[in-house]
Write a structure and sequence with these properties.
- It is a single chain.
- It is built from 4 helices and 19 strands.
- The protein is an alpha+beta fold and about 325 residues long.
- It has a domain of about 150 residues.
- The strands form 5 sheets. Strands 6, 7, 8, 9, 10, 11 and 12 form a 7-stranded antiparallel sheet that branches. Strands 13, 14, 15, 16 and 19 form a 5-stranded antiparallel sheet that branches. A 3-stranded antiparallel sheet has the order 2-3-5, with no helix packed on it.
- Keywords: Hydrolase.
- One of its GO terms (molecular function) is hydrolase activity, hydrolyzing O-glycosyl compounds.
- One of its GO terms (cellular component) is extracellular region.
């Protein structure tokens, strides 16, 4: 019989737990925390089909809470176990990471704090994810310290994205536009539609990439669900945030060239940021008989959209703004 998920437990490769009436299989070995339940940590747990009874491991914990609303998570198809198994930190070595600290870059932390985070802050689990090629850009080409910085930034984005999703599940929409964590090609019903491309629809997404949060497009027709553009390449992702909301509280504003936020006459919807902190805003631009979601900023010469394995710069575009 599968044991219940519980916090403060070291879970290893192949473990299966039950939570809220469903079973989940480990994606990344880790020591669980109270706010890392399987329903809100799709990077750590993959939900199994309810009819699949294989691969059960014994763990005993607490069962309860409100069932998630249709966000069935599965292990990424391209995930491979890391060549070296990173052990989960013992519970007495676990360290608390405060909200303000998560805003810092890895390079801004002192050496003692870095060591604490490597041992007890879940950074090893992040490195295990990186070793599997999970949502990171050219990670294998980076130095060991750059890899740690990448894993730290990815871990913090996932933590914040999971918190946003949990808030959305609990309270619903809090405004005309809201980012929520999503996985794969299952597009939420209230995702903001940009328009059709051939026989499929295009929606707005964003995801962590190389120290920044890049804006792109999502569709149930894409092989992984989402595509972002970065350094003139398309990056395909199955874990991303998608923009949901109500267009009655939003409108598109014409723009061209480098974005001047003050000239829009309305507050733009923030999309993400470059790895140097430059804000990126949600844009859309016409190309090849369709209107594509993308990004605009004060440093880009137009809206950049991912298309045909590259990025296209479109001089005349529109920016999504609040009414």
């Amino acid at each position: 019989m599968t044991g219940y998920w519980e916090p403060g437990t070291a879970y290893g490769q192949g473990d299966v737990v039950e939570y809220q009436g469903h079973r989940y299989k480990i994606v990344i070995p880790h020591t669980s925390q109270s706010d890392w339940a399987p329903t809100v940590t799709p990077n750590l747990w993959g939900r199994l089909d309810d009819h699949d009874q294989g691969g059960q491991e014994q763990h005993h914990g607490h069962h309860g809470g409100q069932q998630g609303q249709g966000y069935q998570q599965q292990q990424p198809a391209n995930y491979q176990p890391p060549p070296q198994a990173y052990p989960s930190p013992p519970q007495d070595q676990k360290v608390d990471i405060h909200h303000e600290e998560r805003k810092k870059k890895w390079w801004d932390l002192d050496d003692d704090r870095k060591k604490q985070l490597e041992i007890g802050g879940g950074l090893l689990a992040g490195l295990a994810a990186a070793a599997g090629g999970y949502a990171l850009y050219k990670h294998h080409e980076k130095s060991e310290d750059e890899k740690k910085a990448d894993a730290w930034a990815l871990q913090n984005w996932m933590h914040e994205a999971e918190a946003r999703l949990n808030d959305y599940r609990q309270y619903g929409l809090r405004g005309p536009a809201q980012w929520i964590l999503n996985r794969g090609t299952n597009i939420p019903n209230n995702a903001i539609l940009v328009g059709p491309e051939k026989e499929w629809n295009l929606y707005i997404c964003r995801a962590y990439c190389d120290g920044g949060i890049q804006v792109g497009k999502a569709s149930d027709a894409f092989k992984k669900g989402a595509v972002i553009g970065y350094k003139n390449e398309e990056v395909h992702l199955d874990t991303y945030e998608i923009l949901v909301g109500d267009m009655r509280g939003l409108h598109w504003v014409d723009a061209s060239g480098r974005l001047n936020v003050n000239s829009l006459g309305a507050r733009p919807v923030e999309g993400g940021h470059e790895n140097d902190g430059t804000p990126l805003y949600v844009a859309c631009a016409p190309h090849k008989d369709a209107v594509h979601p993308g990004k605009a900023s004060e440093k880009l010469d137009g809206a950049y959209i991912p298309y045909d394995d590259k990025e296209k710069c479109i001089k005349n575009y529109r920016v999504l703004c609040y009414n």
